[in-house]
Amino acid sequence: MALKITDECIGCGTCLDCCPVDAIVESGEIYMINNDCTECKACVDVCPVSAIVE
To answer: Would you say domain 4-53 falls under CATH 3.30.460.10?
Structure first.
């Protein structure tokens, strides 16, 4: 399963700082997860609005 950042993203950048493989990138006002993602789910745990889903 792949992780995805939904439109609920508020662009706070918290997920950027926790990603061990730098798989999260800016995409306009929100962020997206690229193919480098190892699905460690560290970003899921830190997202304040639960915008990262499988």
So the answer is: no
